[in-house]
Amino acid sequence: MVRLNLSGIFAGALLLATQVQAAAPRLRYMPLGDSITELGCWRAWVHRQLVKDGYDIDFVGSMNSSTNCNNLNYDRQHEGHSGRQAFDMVARGQLKAWLKANPADIITMHLGTNDIRYARNTSTIIGSLGTLIDQMRAANPKMKIIVAQIIPLVKRNKVKETQDLNKEIAHLVARKRTVPDSPIWLVDQSYGFNVTTDLEADNIHPNANGQKKMAERFYPAIVGAIKSLGVKPKTPVQGKSVATPVSPEKMEEVKAWCAAHPKYIKKN
Ligand SMILES: *[C@@H]1O[C@H](CO)[C@@H](O)[C@H](O)[C@H]1NC(C)=O
Ligand SMILES: *[C@@H]1O[C@H](CO)[C@@H](O)[C@H](O)[C@H]1NC(C)=O
Ligand SMILES: *[C@@H]1O[C@H](CO)[C@@H](O)[C@H](O)[C@H]1NC(C)=O
C-alpha cells in the first residue's frame, strides 16, 4: 500500500517534471533607450495590452521603473537610461553587458535624441546605432530587432536634425535586413506625432498623449516579433487591440530606397 502510494507520487512528480520541461520558455523583451524609454508609461501600456491580448512576455533589463502609471500592474524591467547617447552606450560597451546580464529575444531601440542634443552628426549617430544592432546579434544571433525612428526633438529647435536622422535610420534598417534569423523592423515614432499636443513642456519627452502614441506604434511590431518566434497568445484575445498600422508612407520610402540600392539587399 505504502509502496503503491509512493510510486504514484513519483510517477506524478515525473509527469510534472516532464510537463515543466516541455513548456516553452517565456519570451524576453528588452526596451532599450534613453529617458524617453525610462520615464513615462508607454512600456506599461504595451505590457498591459500584451496581457490583454493573451501574451505572457517577460520584460527584461537592469532598470526597474518606479513610474506609477495610474496604479497599473506592469512588468517594470527595462534598459532605458536617462541622458544616454547611443555614442556613449557603444563607447562604454554597455549594451553587451546588459544583454549578458539579461538576455533577450526581442528588443526595441529608441535612441539618438541625446546624441543630437550634444551635436553629434547624423553619420556618427548612425554608426553608433549600427554597432548596437551588431552587438544585439552578437549576443543572440536570432534577436528580433525593432528600431524606432525617433520622436521630434523640439528643444533648441532640433526637428530638422531628427528628420535627417530618421531618414538615415530607415536606410540603416534596410542595410541591416540581411540576416534571415534576425529580422529587423522599422517603427516610425515620428509619424503622427504632434509637437503641439504630444510633448511635455520640456520639448523633449512625450506627454501622456505622446506616450500613448508610442505604445500604439511599437505594439504591432512587438506582436509581429512575438509571432515570428512561433508564440501564440495563451488566452483568447480579449476585446480590441490598440494596434494601428505603422507608417505606410515610410515603408514605401524604404522600399524605394531598397530598389535603388540592390547590393544591400540579400535575396534568399
Ligand atoms: C521593482 O520596484 C518595485 C517598486 O517600485 C518593487 O516592488 C520590486 O520588487 C522591484 N523589482 C525588482 C526586480 O527589483
Ligand atoms: C561627423 O563627426 C565626426 C566626428 O566629429 C567627423 O569625423 C565627421 O567628419 C563628421 N561627418 C560629417 C558628415 O560631418
Ligand atoms: C497638432 O495639434 C494642433 C492642436 O490640436 C493642431 O492644430 C495641428 O493641426 C496638429 N498638427 C498636426 C501636424 O497634426
From TrEMBL:
SUPFAM superfamilies: SGNH hydrolase. Residues 32-212 form the SGNH hydrolase-type esterase domain. It comes from the Eukaryota. GO terms for molecular function: phosphatidylcholine lysophospholipase activity. Keywords: Hydrolase, Signal. The keyword Signal applies. Residues 1-22 form the signal peptide. This is SGNH hydrolase-type esterase domain-containing protein. It comes from Podospora didyma.
